[in-house]
Amino acid sequence: MNNANLLTQLQQLCEILQPFQFGVGGSSLLWQLGLETAPNDIDIVCSEQDFAQITEVLSARFLPQPIPAHPAYVSAHFNRFSRDGWPDIDVMAGIAVKLGGNVTRWQFHTHRCHWQNGVCWMPPADWLQLYQLFNRPERVAQLRQYLVQLRLSSLN
After folding, report:
1. Which of 71, 81, 84, 85 qualifies as a FRET site for 103, CA 20 to 30 Å off?
2. Are 114 and 88 in contact (CB under 8 A)?
3. What is the pLDDT averaged over residues 11-28?
4. Contacts of 3 (CB under 8 A, 6+ apart)
5. What is the Cα–Cα distance from 90 to 88, expressed in whole angstroms?
């Protein structure tokens, strides 16, 4: 997938989701930050209140996909959509992960998201927390390094 095409797809997606509380994260966010060259999907995190409406809007334009059960991911809401020529779109709300016998919940804060070039991006610090929760050490290392460099450049 070429980068101009991905940006156009993200812009189109954000335009139809604009009335809702959501943000784009995951590998698409890493791509936007220059940390990923080829995102495997589009991750959308949204408020639990808007999940059903977002699912309805996306179901009219994309094909809902079956979701295999995962022993550790126990989020309240999760859907995947696909369409020819697009990466898969994962929509999640009420994110929770089971670690041992405990369930850890993560709270989405829409006010932390920001619009840039027609895309509503989640903050990198939120995805650092999510990748830690999802036990994705490579992604955690990428984002930690990015955030340290960002902090250092803001001091100069």
Report:
1. 81
2. no
3. 97
4. 31
5. 6
How many angstroms separate the CA atoms of 55 and 3, rounded?
26
Give this prediction's pTM: 0.94
With vertex at residue 23, the alpha carbon angle to CA 46 and CA 154, rounded to the nearest 5 degrees, is 140
User: Domain map of the chain by residue range?
Assistant: 3-155
34-64 burial: b if 16+ Cβ within 10 Å, else e: eebeebebbbbbbbeebbeebbebbeeebee
Question: Do residues 89 and 13 lie in contact, with contact meaning Cβ atoms separated by under 8 Å?
Answer: yes
Q: What class, spelled out in words, does domain 3-155 have in CATH?
A: alpha beta
Per-residue pLDDT averaged across 76-92, rounded?
Answer: 96
